[in-house]
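Continuing the series of single-chain predictions for the mutant panel. This is the parent chain; the variants come on the following pages.
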Amino acid sequence: MERLGQLRLGLALGGVLLVSAAYAADTSAFRASVGYDYTTGKYGGTQTIDETYVPFTAAYEMNDVELRVTVPYASVSGPATIIDGTTGEFAPGPGGTRSGLGDVVMGLSLYDLLRSSDAGFQLDAGAKVKFGTADESKGLGTGETDYSLQMNGLQEFGPAALFATAGYIWRGSPTGLHLRSVAFGSIGGDVRVADAARAGVTYGYRPAAISGFPAVQEASMFLAFAPTGGLTLRPYVSVGFSDSSPSWGAGVSLGWKLRVHEGEER
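Parent structure:
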């Protein structure tokens, strides 16, 4: 009941922010997306752990602010509890195959905190709250609420770009399991390969949530397509480099964006 109350309060506050910002927005747009992510690995053990994560996201962007809510379906097979469905990190948990509602996530992004069109530089900020809505008895989540903040930088070089993220996550304290709050970061780059397509690579590093485990290290390769009509398509493949990371993963996301008020293009 306490977790449900936190979720309702978060959604209510988000709704207030959304409505008030929409009235003041010069440029606004709705965005929706659905993804499919699959990861697998033994994580230093003898049994394989498979996770399927299917997030449904709805967002509203007004000027340089975006508010979004993600409601995921999660499935895990193997002796594990999902710590974070978006990253494929696990703690010991029940065996077998379990599935159901994952942890609902609310996010806020602030774009163009610093921006130079001449230099091709952009700095953004973001915050997320992961509500403990998943059933911890099934190992679909920890049952706790986590919070994170991050900064995102982008530097363009003609058709190519470099980008980096740095942030910190504050984790809850589930019964019988001590999870660490840690800093995290990633770096990557992409290049335009066609008028509506970019190809890129990313590398991410994050200390493990459980003390004594190796850091999570993972690289991915992706394609990003943006055909006409506000559609986006982003397939990817990934590989892990430690016993806290999936051996490999693959997925795809499909998005759609509808502009409501037109202003200066960002």
